[in-house]
Amino acid sequence: MRRRNFLAGAGASLLAGCNRIAETDTGGALLRSADGWHRSVQRFFNPPGALVPEFTPADISPFFRGNGSTNPTNGDYQSHVAAGFSDWQLSVRGLVEHPLDFTLANIRALPQRTQITRHDCVEGWSAIGEWTGPQLSLLLDSAGILPAARFIVFRCADNLNGRDYYESVDLVDAFHPQTIVAHSLNGEALPIKNGAPLRMRIERQLGYKHAKYLTGIEAVASLEGIGDGKGGYWEDRSGYQWYAGI
Ligand SMILES: Nc1nc2c(c(=O)[nH]1)N[C@H]1C(S)=C(S)[C@@H](COP(=O)(O)O)O[C@H]1N2
Ligand SMILES: [Mo]
Hints:
The protein is α+β, with helices and mostly antiparallel strands. The chain has helices at about 1-15, 20-25, 25-30, 35-45, 75-80, 105-110, 135-145, 170-175, 235-240; strands spanning about 90-95, 100-105, 115-120, 125-135, 150-160, 165-170, 180, 185, 190, 200, 215-220. The chain is built from nine helices and eleven strands. The N and C termini lie close together (about 5 Å). The structure holds ligand MTE and molybdenum atom.
C-alpha cells in the first residue's frame, strides 16, 4: 500500500516534467493516461513475472470477510446453491480458437496451484487466505488466445445495484503464475460470501479485480461496449483505476 501511494505522488510530479518523454512515440504511449503510467512504472519496479509474497499456514486470517456481493439473489444463483453448484459452468469465449465450457469437475481435474496470499481491499482492510485452483493460463492456453486479444474479461453471476459485476485485466496479469481460478479457500470449497463456486485470484491486483461468482472468461480486443467501457464494475461506477497493481 505504501508503494502505491508513493507511486501516485511521484506520478503527479514526474508527469509535470515529462514533456520531452511525451514527445517520443514510446513515451507518449506510456504517458497517455494515468492508468497507463501507473502500469508502466509499477512494472518497472515489479516486473511482469515477479511474484507477490506468499505466506505460511500460521499467517492465515481466522476469518476472511465477504465484501460487495456476499449472497447473490438475482438470476438463477440461488438454484445453483440449492443444487450444490453441480451444474455450474465456466465458459471461455471471445477471441479464442476453441470456445470451451468447464464444469467444476473439469476445473478440479486440471493441475492445481495453492497459494497463501494477502488480499487488500481499497476500503481499508486486508486478510490472508489460502487459495487453490488452476492457473488461468491453463484455461487460456487450452482455448488458444487469438493474436488480436488484448484483455481478458471476467463475467460474474451477481448483479449489484442493477449492474452485472464484471472485471478485466491485460494479458500480462492474465498469464501471471499467481492468477488462478480458485475453487477453494483454506482447503474448503469456497464459501458463498467469498464467491462460490469459482472466483478469480489476481494476486498482483487490488481486491475489486478478483471477480467472484465467475461464469465466463472472454478474450477481447477492446473494453469498449462492455459495461460502461472502463473495464470493471467499480471502474464504471466510482472511477476506481482499471490498473490496480499493488
Ligand atoms: N462478483 C463480484 N466480485 C467481487 C465483488 C463483488 O461484489 N462481486 N467485490 C470485490 C471486492 S471490492 C473485494 S474487496 C473482493 C472481496 O472478496 P471477498 O468477498 O472474498 O472478501 O471481491 C471483489 N470481487
Ligand atoms: Mo474491495
